[in-house]
Amino acid sequence: MRLDKVREILDADILVGEEFIDLEVVSACGSDLMSDVLAFVKDQTLLLTGLINPQVVRTAEMMDIRVIVFVRGKVPGKEIVQLAKEKDMVLLTTKYPLYTACGLLYSAGLHTKEV
Amino acid sequence: MAEEKNIISLQYKVNGEDFSLAGEASSNVKKILKQLGVNPEAIRRVAIAMYEGEINMVIHAKGGIAEVNITPEQIKVLLQDEGPGIADIELAMQEGYSTAPDNIRELGFGAGMGLPNMKRYSDEMKINSVVGKGTRVELIFNI
Q1: Is A100 an interface residue toward B (CB < 8 Å)?
Q2: What is the pLDDT of residue A113?
Q3: Which ranges of chain B would DSSP assign to H, the alpha helix?
Q4: Structural domain count of chain A
Q5: Predicted pLDDT of residue A40
Q6: Cβ of A59 and B51 within 8 Å?
Q7: Domain that holds residue A96
Q8: B134 by DSSP, 3-state: which?
């Protein structure tokens, strides 16, 4: 699924990485536990999370995840946005809670790739 | 960075004061491995395992030293700290077991997945720990 479609479905705002809007993601993962993300996630994945700290971006970096969606209308601080910019990542924010955001993307055809 | 007979050695001091900086060493290693043209799957395994190790050193040991030795066949990551040590390594290796404080859990870590993840992504893992002295973790990745 292309990111512009993700943005539309989640009615999301792009915080950084607008230039990568034609990026394609093949699966998604919703988690507030970074250790689980590190244990199970495959690449070309979109991460949805309610956590906002620099380690979310670091975790994504290690996993080759390039897209992070912050849920419940959360907006990370400048430092986090800057770190993501340096890593060529895309950060989005949506007002939907985690469960709903995941459900909307899943219903639209973005499924989980089995590990 | 020292280069000798096809061995590249990197050394990092992992700052234990600031959790937000944890991962900088792993990020740098990842960048260097990419420049060296190491295969992406191996890079991912090294980066994830080393990152978990770095996080552990910051959470439990107020930082430490990370050393990385790269040869064309193998990547070795050595993490050493002078923290409190691990009393029961077998227990610490169990998924879900953690002694991390609540403020770390709120940041998305401390769920008892660190050491198991390091084992999962490496080809070989050795832990030596002395209570009150510190911990030494060696990770080997065949590439």
Answers
A1: no
A2: 61
A3: 24-35, 40-61, 89-92, 102-105, 114-121
A4: 1
A5: 80
A6: yes
A7: 3-107
A8: strand
